[in-house]
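Dock S-adenosylmethionine; give full complex structure.
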Amino acid sequence: MGGRQLPTLYGVSLGPGNPKLLTLRAVEVLREAPKVFVPSSKGISRAEAIVSYFTKKRRIIRLDFPMVKDEAIVAKALQRNASRVCSILQRYGSCAYAALGDLSLYSTFWRLYPYVKEKMHDLDIEVIPGVPSFCACAASAKIPLALGDDIITIIPLSASRERIENLARYADTSILLKIKPSIIRSLKLVGKEYQQAVLAMHCSTDNEQVRVANIKELEELSKYFALMIVKRRKFL
Ligand SMILES: C[S@@+](CC[C@H](N)C(=O)[O-])C[C@H]1O[C@@H](n2cnc3c(N)ncnc32)[C@H](O)[C@@H]1O
C-alpha cells in the first residue's frame, strides 16, 4: 500500500475575470503549484493577469494556442504544448493549467489533456470547477438564467447557422458565446421569437459592460459584445 504517487496535472478554472470569483481550492492550487501554465495568443492574457494575483511571475508559463481553423496547425501546437507540460510534470511531480470561466466549457484544457495523457500514461488529474462567464453575466444583469421548467441552450456562434437556428427555436433561454459580426444573420431568427436580450463584455472586470436590451436592438449592438443571453420571456 502507499504506492508511488502519480504526477498530477491540476486544471484550474479561473472564473470570468474578477480574481475574487475563484474558488478556495483554485486559489490553494495556484499558490502551491510549482508552475502554472496559461493559454496565450498575444501578450498578457486575462487568465495570466488573474493567475498573477496568486503566484509569482516566474512560476507562470505561457502556452501559445494559435487561433486558426487549420486542425494540422492546432495539433502541432498541442503536441508542442503537451511536451512542455510533460517535462514540468517529470521535473516537479505536479503543475497547473489555468483558464477562464469553467474548464468544462470550450476550454483549451480539454484540447490539451489528451495529448498530455498520450505522452504520459501514468498521470492523475484534478479538475477544479469555476464560475462560467454567462453566470457572471446573469448576476451583473440581475436576472435569472432559468426558472421552473425553462430550457437553456448554450450556443457557440462558431456552430453552423442551421444548428444555431434549430436550438434557438426550442430554448426559453439561449446563451450565445464567441460572438462575431456574422452572428447578425443568425440573430434574425432569434429576434422573431425572443423578447429580451442581455449583452455583455468583460464580465466581472473593471471594464465590464452589461446591457439589457430589447431584442430589436440586437443587430446593432451585437458587433460590440462578447456574450449574449436571449430570453423568450422578459424578466421584469
Ligand atoms: C472559449 S469560450 C470559454 C468559456 C469559458 N470557459 C466559460 O466558462 O465562460 C470564450 C467565450 O466566453 C465568453 N466570455 C468569457 N469570459 C467572458 C467575460 N468575462 N465576459 C463576457 N464574455 C465572456 C465569450 O463569449 C468568449 O467568446
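Observed: The beta strands are 8-13, 36-40, 60-64, 94-99, 124-128, 152-156, 173-177, 196-201, 209-214, 227-231.
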